[in-house]
């Protein structure tokens, strides 16, 4: 067979001056291992938030017993970290523009390290809240900087895959937190929960060591006028030399540096200290920027408002309501939830750049609506039978909790961070992403600090019906307003956005442009069309 192929190739070459292999579709570039490594190291900061969420779900049981605090105090303790993280995310945009993305990651880890130790050594409720405040600031920094750095270092072909890593590590952290709960649950009450919280300082040490191997973001280097350093990073993190040059040209244009300028160090046009950025973002946005801002803030709102924190933070209470009363069994069920989230987020990372953002997002939210509705039905039936234990309702509730966590993790969970970090133009990205994170944390804090009070007022089943209704509104919003961004360069976004619900017109224009750019006999897929179409039969 190989000999026949070589013979055909020789004959074709004599006749046309070309070989058959010249007309083969181009091979898909291999995944850039250097960019892959950078994304993993940056995304490790997200373990900090995930571990805190997971560990607090179980630790809260023992904290309440040991410190003898009320349900309202538990609600505040669990949810307040999200409010505190606003201070970190608000400062992270300016800090990352000032000291760089890489050292902002180090700062996030150092702050959380201090917070974890304070919580681990807490002797009373007030001391514990101080530790939550410090840890919250670190979480705010980590949430903003990880997706920004990863988006800026990733080649377009792998951006969805790599930018989903922060959410992957959130889920890994949640799973580790659940496992920590189970591992330390056999210890004396006053020691167990302190070890659960204090162990959270360990990932920070590995994070600080890992950052030493990371390069700085090429976009930040260009903004500092360090073109030589940026070029070296882009050459390592791009799929080809041509893509590296194209990315550099796009960044230089956004930074106001002339395209012909090739010096290693150049003078970048001075910018005001953020005031112009906020004016362009909030006071005088273009239609494209307004559309981008609505999409970024909206997806963060709905990610949290659809009830994910009620599941991951309060799953032991949900399982108890469903009829699982044994403490060990409740903690093992939370481990199952964490395992499902982690498995499905890993599946999502491989689907994002194959299936696209939109199909995954819409199918994920549709599944969440169903699972929340079914969970609400199961819990309502239990209430109507005055808490009587029924095997089928327990199985239904457990299945729907795991299904909801899995469906969230395969779509809405990772896509929120991928989408919001890739759509902002360069000069607005840090501040724009910090606004999205701020919305995310506010809604998460409100939901976390009201869940117990909410289900006492409208029943637990009613609470999940409410979250299901919010998820239904989210599906309509996403379907109407969100264009597909798969395979688009970061600088294409201002063309794609700005039409709001009529975004399909801009998408068609970009598709046409892509086909023209791949002209000269190219069908737009990378394969050359041989011959002509025959007459229709």
UniProtKB/TrEMBL annotation:
Membrane-spanning residues: 34-62, 74-93, 105-127, 133-149, 161-179, 191-214, 331-352, 364-382, 394-418, 464-482
GO function terms (MF aspect): carbohydrate:proton symporter activity
Region: Disordered, residue numbers: 1-27, 515-537
UniProt entry tagged with the keyword Zinc: no
PROSITE patterns named in the record: MFS, SUGAR_TRANSPORT_1, SUGAR_TRANSPORT_2
Segment forming the signal sequence: none
Chief subcellular location: membrane
Compositionally biased tracts (Polar residues): 11-21
GO CC, alphabetical: membrane
Keywords for the protein's UniProt record, in alphabetical order: Membrane, Sugar transport, Symport, Transmembrane, Transmembrane helix, Transport
Major facilitator superfamily (MFS) profile domain segment(s): 38-486
Gene3D superfamilies noted in UniProt: MFS general substrate transporter like domains
Record carries keyword Transport: yes
Bilayer topology term: Multi-pass membrane protein
Top-level lineage group: Eukaryota
Similarity comment: Belongs to the major facilitator superfamily. Sugar transporter (TC 2.A.1.1) family.
Name of protein: Polyol transporter 1
């Amino acid at each position: 067979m190989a000999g026949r192929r070589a013979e055909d190739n020789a004959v074709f070459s004599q006749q046309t001056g070309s070989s058959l292999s010249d007309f083969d579709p181009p091979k898909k570039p291999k995944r850039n291992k250097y960019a892959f490594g950078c994304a993993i190291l940056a995304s490790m900061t997200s373990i900090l938030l995930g571990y805190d969420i997971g560990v607090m779900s179980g630790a809260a049981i023992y904290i309440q017993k040991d410190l003898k605090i009320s349900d309202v105090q538990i609600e505040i303790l669990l949810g307040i970290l999200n409010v505190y993280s606003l201070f970190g995310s608000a400062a992270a945009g300016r800090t990352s523009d000032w000291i760089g993305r890489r050292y902002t990651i180090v700062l996030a880890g150092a702050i959380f390290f201090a917070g974890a130790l304070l919580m681990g050594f807490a002797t009373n409720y007030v001391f514990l809240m101080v530790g939550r405040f410090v840890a919250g600031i670190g979480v705010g920094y980590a949430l903003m900087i990880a997706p920004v750095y990863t988006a800026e270092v990733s080649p377009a072909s792998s951006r969805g895959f790599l930018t989903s890593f922060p959410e992957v590590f959130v889920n890994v952290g949640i799973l580790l937190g659940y496992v920590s709960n189970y591992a330390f649950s056999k210890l004396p009450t006053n020691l167990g929960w302190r070890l659960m919280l204090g162990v959270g300082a360990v990932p920070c040490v590995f994070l600080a060591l890992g950052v030493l191997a990371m390069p700085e973001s090429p976009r930040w280097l260009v903004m500092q006028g360090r073109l030589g350093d940026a070029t070296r990073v882009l050459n390592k993190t791009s799929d080809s030399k041509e893509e590296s040059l194209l990315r550099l040209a796009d960044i230089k244009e956004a930074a106001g540096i002339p395209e012909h300028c090739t010096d290693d160090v150049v003078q970048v046009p001075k910018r005001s200290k953020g005031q112009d950025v906020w004016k362009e973002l909030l006071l005088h946005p273009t239609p494209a920027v307004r559309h981008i801002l609505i999409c970024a803030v909206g997806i963060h709102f709905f990610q949290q408002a659809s009830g994910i924190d009620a599941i991951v933070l309060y799953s032991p209470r949900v399982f108890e309501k469903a009829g699982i009363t044994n403490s060990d069994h409740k903690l093992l069920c939370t481990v199952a939830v964490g395992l499902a989230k982690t498995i499905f987020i890993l599946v999502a990372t491989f689907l994002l750049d194959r299936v696209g953002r939109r199909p995954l997002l819409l199918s994920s939210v549709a599944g969440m609506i169903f699972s929340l509705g079914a969970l609400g039905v199961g819990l309502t039936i239990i209430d109507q039978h005055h808490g009587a234990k029924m095997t089928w309702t327990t199985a239904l509730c457990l299945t729907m909790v795991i299904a909801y966590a899995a469906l969230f993790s395969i779509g809405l969970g990772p896509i929120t961070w991928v989408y919001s970090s890739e759509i902002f133009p360069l000069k607005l990205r840090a501040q724009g992403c910090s606004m999205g994170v701020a919305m995310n944390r506010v809604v998460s804090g409100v939901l976390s600090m009201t869940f117990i009070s909410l289900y006492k007022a409208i029943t637990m089943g009613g609470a999940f019906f409410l979250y299901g209704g919010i998820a239904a509104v989210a599906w309509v919003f996403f379907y109407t307003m969100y264009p597909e961004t798969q395979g688009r360069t970061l600088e294409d976004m201002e063309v794609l956005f700005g039409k709001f619900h009529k975004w399909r017109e801009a998408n068609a224009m970009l598709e046409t442009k892509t086909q023209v750019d791949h002209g000269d006999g190219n069908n737009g897929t990378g394969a050359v069309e041989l011959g002509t179409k025959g007459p229709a039969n």
